[in-house]
Amino acid sequence: MKAAIFNSYGSPEVMKIRYVQQPSIKDDVRVLIRVRNASVNTFDYLCRKGFLPIRLEHGLTKPKNLILGIDVAGTVEAVGNNVTKFKVGDDVFGSCFGSHAEYVCPRQNVLTLMPKNISFEEAAAVPCAALTAMQALRDVAQVKEGQKVLIYGASGGVGHFAVQLAKYYGAEVTAVCSASNIQWVRGLGAHHVIDYTKQEFTDNGKKYDFILDAVGKRTYFSCMRSLTETGIYITEQPLRPKYHPFQLMVGPMIGRKKAKLHLTKPNDLDMEFLSQLIEDNKIRSVVEKCYPLEQIVEAHRHIENGRTKGKIVLGM
Question: Quick one: how far is CA 151 from the chain centroid?
Answer without folding.
Answer: 14
